[in-house]
């Protein structure tokens, strides 16, 4: 809505009640009813509903316009023989008069006709115009769509213009007629209305809110709008969905309205004339759609003679007699009384009748004029000769009769005029009384305003009083903080030894602390900085008193305990009592004071942290002076060369231990004692303090330095790898016990123990002691020495290992291990990691010594060095071990050829597969996998490789031999093992196949060479079959030898494979390529022999399927197989 859009307000609301009207129709009338009259220029508004058989039959109109708007159904306007369809409009200007009928049209299934009819008064100058009609069908009514309402409002413009759209209807006088349709609730529009025009709204569906009205007006109400000069239109808001109403505005008429039924004129005389005209019109037969004939000549009718009439309408005898009777009766019709000839009195009583007689020109001759009767005023001045003259004369008589009949009405009008005069006088008296009442009301308002002024003044005084009281209370509350300084200063000016123990002391300290915080928050107060400085001085003095009392008490206690400990024969129980129980006895008295000091030192670090540090230093100095001498004695008692170590190490004499075990006992005992000592000191410190964690651990590290100075030289010079591992085991066991539970560190979601000592220690407060920080340096020295010692063992026992004859007794070692079931398995040390406890470890006596040493060294190092360091040393050890195995394999091949060649290859495959299993486990651990997870092993990997390839053991696929799915971290060692394993497998497969197929291959090559040479000669030589080596008998002998070799050599080779690899699935994976190669070589031989010979040889040759079946039968034969010397 624009800024200039000012809406009219509601002037009146009238409910239209449904009442019968016409011939059975139902009408809701608002304008024109008793409650709403004279809404110029609007005379009447009817909302009609016409049921079956009802309607509005013939009725006249004059001096007005009727607007009929059909909402539902159709209606017939009979004088025009037209229909008004649903949504159609007929604007009829009655003008000087018309008679018409409006009857509904009820079609089958169609709704009853419903519509609106509005009577509009015509201006005085247009009341006697010729009747006219303006009709619009539903599709001809223009529709406007206001902006800003998203198409939720449609305005059908019956007349006038709205939102840029104008109707073609042109009424006489200004009148706008709109049909507004709202689709959604709470939609608002603004319609401009010319200033000064009369406007109203009629609702027949939903509800609306007009202007500033807060209450929605329901259906069937007519709302008249005010006409303020400043208003430019009306704002209408839909109160419901699907709301419909009409908005009508018209220019008011400054004229008198005389209405008699359907006749609307401006004077009473015009009404009377209209009634006379209607009576005349009612007795005439004229077209419906024409004006009433008011003083107009009748139309000329065609005349016929008597003969034509007699011919067209012959009469019977009875009819002729009746006509004669009527003729006789009409020859002397009686005149009305008014026109009687024997009336004696003249029209005017002062004029005698004989005065009108003039003397004749000739005597005795009668004069017709003398005999003429005096005429009446209503007597026709001229003889009646035409029907129109008769109608005019009769209308004059009818008006005279009506005038005489309305005498009582005129008398009633005179009486009403007298009553109106009386009412005017009463209104004048009422106006005078209103003025008096207004004067009294003004006086009362003056008194009321004076009382309100007095009341407001009193309330302001009360508010001012309350404000001053609140200000006084606020000032008093703030002064309490400043007044506290005097009390604190007075108490601190009279110190004594027992001042800090008084109950008021801690209360005073608390109050001073509160005052300091308050003044810091309100530095804008006057002299706040001065008082803040003095309060801080008081706090410093109070905390200094606590420090002095604590230091003095601690010195006195330490002196007494030192004196008691210097006495002879003090038992260990007495020492524990003096060192710990005596200190705990004074903690209940000192701990609250120290707690106050800690709390203030944390809040005021700049001023009080130094006092707390002095308390910590004094405490640690006192404890250190009492413990150092006793600690040195305990460390000296841990020397394994002394007999006291035997007693300390669980009552076992040192002669029953090796040196490494004595060193292990010393480390375990010393660390256990040191851990208990640190734990006792930690718990005692917590009895006094709740802070100072860094100073506490520094103090405990100083105590540990005494044991560390004794152990470090021994660790650095320890030559035994097992002893170093045991030391690391002891230290890690003590540190594992120190790992916090998950509940103490919610951020650590890893269930695995993490002993990475390089990670900075988190602040745990004084909740528990973390012994790992204290043992960290000892463990690092032991791990460093262990790493260098392991490197030395790898270099001496693996890289530079000297081969011995008994190391190459293969396959005898395997046969002995297979025949003899070991009574007791090899038991590894308990410290060996779980990742090396694989099924292959059960037969380490059949391993090559370097592999045994590699597994032993890695198992010792895995749990005691960092993962990165372990990975480096493991890669080095595995690479050197692989090189030693390759050298041993080459030596074994040369031991007893040709059988030793296959032994050397299988020896290398066996040990490489064991190394493969070890590297896989190491790689899983590096990637945080469980070694027990069932990954695809060597057998499955070999099977998948050989089943998916056409080439035998391709290089690209052997890189994943025995590998778990994913990239490992020990890539260098694994790549070398893969490479050697690929080469060894190729050589083993070739060795097994060549021992069977070498003769066949040589024979086929010899045939090819002969054929090639024979084709290149110019002259034909001896044919191939004539050669002795190429005869059919030689070929049959070669075929029989091949079968025998398969039965003998292949069975022996399969037995060797099973002996070395000890797993049928793995053996089958390697046997399959052997079979494929044999079948391929034999197919070449069979093809050549088939083309060269015929007869029995062809029957002896094996097909591919038969040969493969024979080979599988041999490979799947008895497990024991032949002896290795076969």
UniProtKB/TrEMBL annotation:
* GO biological process terms held by the UniProt record: Golgi organization; intra-Golgi vesicle-mediated transport; intracellular protein transport
Give membrane topology per the record. Peripheral membrane protein
The Conserved oligomeric Golgi complex subunit 3 N-terminal domain covers: 412-555
Record carries keyword Protein transport: yes
Renumbered residue ranges of the record's region Disordered: 335-371
Ranges for domain Pirin C-terminal: 185-279
Among CDD domains, the record links this protein to:
cupin_pirin_C (cd02247), cupin_pirin_N (cd02909)
Q: What is its main location?
A: Golgi
According to the entry, every stretch annotated as the Conserved oligomeric Golgi complex subunit 3 C-terminal domain falls at: 577-937
Q: Where is the composition biased (Polar residues)?
A: 362-371
Q: Where in the cell is it found?
A: Golgi apparatus membrane
Q: Which of UniProt's keywords are assigned here?
A: Golgi apparatus, Membrane, Protein transport, Transport
- Domain named Pirin N-terminal is located at 27-120
User: An example Gene Ontology cellular component term from the record?
Assistant: Golgi membrane
Q: Which domain of life is it from?
A: Eukaryota
Q: Which family does it belong to?
A: Belongs to the COG3 family. Belongs to the pirin family.
- What is the name attached to this protein's record? Conserved oligomeric Golgi complex subunit 3
- UniProt lineage: Eukaryota, Fungi, Dikarya, Basidiomycota, Agaricomycotina
């Amino acid at each position: 809505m624009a800024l200039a859009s000012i809406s009219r307000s509601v002037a009146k609301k009238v409910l239209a009640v449904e009442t019968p009207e016409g011939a059975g129709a139902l009408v809701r009338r608002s304008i024109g009813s008793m409650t709403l009259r004279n809404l110029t220029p609007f005379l009447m508004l009817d909302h009609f509903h016409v049921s079956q058989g009802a309607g509005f039959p013939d009725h006249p109109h004059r001096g007005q316009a009727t607007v009929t708007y059909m909402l539902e159904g159709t209606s017939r306007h009979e004088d025009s023989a037209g229909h008004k369809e649903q949504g159609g409009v007929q604007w009829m200007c009655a003008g000087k008069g018309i008679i018409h009928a409006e009857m509904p049209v009820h079609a089958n299934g169609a709704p009853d006709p419903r519509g609106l009819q509005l009577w509009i008064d015509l201006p005085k100058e247009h009341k006697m115009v010729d009747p006219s009609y303006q009709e619009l069908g539903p599709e001809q009514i223009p529709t406007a769509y206001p902006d800003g309402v998203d198409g939720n409002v449609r305005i059908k413009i019956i007349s006038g213009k709205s939102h840029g759209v104008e109707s073609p209807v042109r009424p006489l006088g200004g009148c706008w007629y709109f049909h507004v349709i709202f689709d959604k609730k709470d939609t608002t529009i603004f319609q401009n209305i010319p200033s000064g025009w009369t406007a109203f709204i009629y609702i027949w569906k939903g509800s609306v809110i007009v202007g500033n009205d807060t209450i929605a007006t329901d259906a069937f109400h007519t709302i008249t709008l005010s006409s303020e000069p400043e208003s430019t239109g009306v704002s209408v808001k839909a109160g419901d969905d699907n709301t419909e109403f009409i908005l009508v505005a018209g220019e008011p008429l400054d004229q008198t309205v005389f209405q008699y039924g359907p006749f609307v004129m401006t004077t009473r005389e015009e009404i009377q004339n209209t009634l006379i005209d209607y009576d005349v019109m009612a007795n005439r037969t004229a077209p419906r759609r024409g004006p009433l004939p008011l003083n107009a000549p009748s139309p000329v009718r065609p005349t016929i003679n008597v003969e034509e009439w007699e011919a067209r309408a012959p009469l019977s005898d009875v009819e002729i007699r009746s006509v004669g009777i009527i003729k006789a009766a009409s020859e002397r019709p009686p005149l009305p009384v008014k026109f009687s000839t024997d009336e004696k009195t003249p029209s005017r009583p002062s004029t005698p009748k004989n005065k009108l007689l003039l003397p004749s020109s000739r005597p005795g001759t009668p004069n017709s004029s003398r005999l003429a009767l005096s005429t009446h005023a209503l007597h026709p001045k001229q003889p009646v000769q035409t029907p129109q003259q008769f109608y005019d004369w009769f209308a004059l008589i009818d008006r005279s009769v009506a005038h005489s009949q309305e005498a009582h009405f005129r008398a009633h009008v005179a009486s009403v005029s007298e009553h109106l005069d009386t009412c005017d006088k009463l209104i004048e008296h009422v106006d005078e009384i209103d003025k008096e009442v207004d004067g009294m009301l003004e006086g009362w308002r003056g008194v009321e305003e004076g009382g309100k002024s007095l009341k407001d003044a009193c309330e302001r005084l009360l508010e001012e009083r309350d404000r001053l009281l609140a200000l006084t209370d606020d000032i008093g509350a703030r002064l309490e903080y400043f007044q506290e300084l005097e009390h604190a200063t007075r108490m601190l000016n009279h110190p004594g030894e027992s001042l800090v123990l008084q109950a008021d002391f801690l209360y005073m300290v608390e109050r001073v602390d509160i005052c300091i915080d308050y003044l810091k928050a309100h530095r804008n107060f006057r002299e706040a900085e001065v008082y803040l400085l003095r309060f801080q001085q008081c706090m410093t003095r109070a905390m200094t008193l606590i420090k002095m009392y604590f230091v003095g008490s601690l010195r006195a206690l330490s002196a007494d305990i030192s004196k008691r400990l210097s006495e002879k024969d003090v038992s260990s129980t007495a020492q524990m009592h003096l060192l710990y129980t005596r200190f705990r006895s004074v903690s209940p008295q000192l701990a609250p004071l120290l707690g106050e000091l800690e709390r203030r030192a944390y809040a005021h670090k700049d001023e009080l942290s130094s006092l707390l540090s002095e308390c910590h230093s004094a405490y640690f100095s006192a404890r250190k002076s009492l413990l150092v001498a006793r600690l040195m004695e305990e460390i000296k008692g841990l020397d394994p060369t002394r007999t006291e170590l035997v007693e300390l190490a669980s009552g076992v004499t040192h002669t029953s231990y090796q040196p490494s075990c004595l060193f292990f006992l010393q480390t375990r005992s010393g660390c256990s004692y040191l851990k208990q000592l640190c734990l006792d000191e930690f718990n005692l410190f917590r009895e006094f303090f709740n802070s100072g964690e860094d100073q506490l651990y520094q103090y405990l590290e100083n105590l540990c330095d005494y044991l560390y100075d004794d152990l470090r030289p021994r660790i650095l010079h320890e030559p035994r790898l097992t002893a170093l591992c045991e030391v690391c085991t002891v230290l890690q066991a003590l540190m594992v016990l120190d790992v916090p539970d998950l509940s103490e560190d919610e951020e650590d979601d890893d269930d695995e123990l993490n002993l990475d000592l390089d990670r900075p220690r988190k602040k745990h407060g004084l909740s528990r002691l973390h012994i790992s920080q204290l043992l960290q340096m000892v463990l690092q020295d032991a791990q460093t020495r262990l790493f260098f010692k392991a490197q030395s063992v790898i270099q001496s026992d693996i890289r530079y290992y000297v081969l011995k004859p008994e190391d190459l007794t293969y396959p005898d070692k395997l046969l002995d291990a297979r025949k003899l079931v070991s009574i007791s398995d090899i038991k590894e040390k308990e410290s060996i990691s779980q990742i090396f406890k694989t099924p292959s470890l059960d037969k380490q006596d059949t391993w090559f010594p370097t592999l045994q040493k590699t597994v032993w060294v890695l198992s010792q190092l895995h749990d005691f060095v960092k993962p990165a360091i372990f990975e480096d040393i493991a890669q080095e050890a595995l690479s050197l071990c692989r090189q030693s195995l390759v050298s041993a394999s080459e030596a074994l091949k040369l031991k007893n050829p040709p059988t030793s060649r296959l032994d050397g290859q299988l020896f290398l495959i066996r040990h490489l597969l064991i190394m493969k299993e070890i590297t896989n486990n190491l790689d899983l651990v590096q990637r945080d996998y469980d070694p027990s997870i069932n990954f695809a092993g060597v057998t499955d990997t070999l099977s998948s490789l050989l089943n998916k390839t056409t080439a035998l053991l391709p290089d690209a696929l052997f890189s994943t031999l025995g590998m778990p799915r994913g990239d490992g971290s020990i890539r260098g060692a694994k790549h070398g093992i893969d490479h050697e394993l690929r080469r060894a497998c190729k050589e083993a497969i070739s060795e097994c196949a060549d021992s069977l197929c070498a003769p066949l291959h040589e024979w086929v090559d010899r045939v090819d060479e002969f054929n090639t040479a024979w084709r290149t000669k110019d002259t034909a030589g001896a044919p191939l079959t004539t050669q002795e080596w190429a005869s059919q008998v030689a070929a049959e002998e070669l075929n029989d030898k091949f079968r025998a070799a398969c039965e003998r050599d292949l069975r022996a080779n399969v037995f060797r494979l099973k002996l070395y690899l000890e797993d049928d699935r793995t053996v089958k994976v390697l046997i399959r390529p052997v079979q494929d190669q044999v079948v391929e070589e034999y197919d070449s031989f069979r093809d050549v022999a088939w083309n060269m010979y015929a007869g029995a040889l062809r029957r002896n040759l094996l097909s591919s399927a038969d040969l493969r079946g024979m080979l599988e039968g041999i490979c799947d034969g008895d497990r024991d197989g032949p002896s290795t010397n076969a």
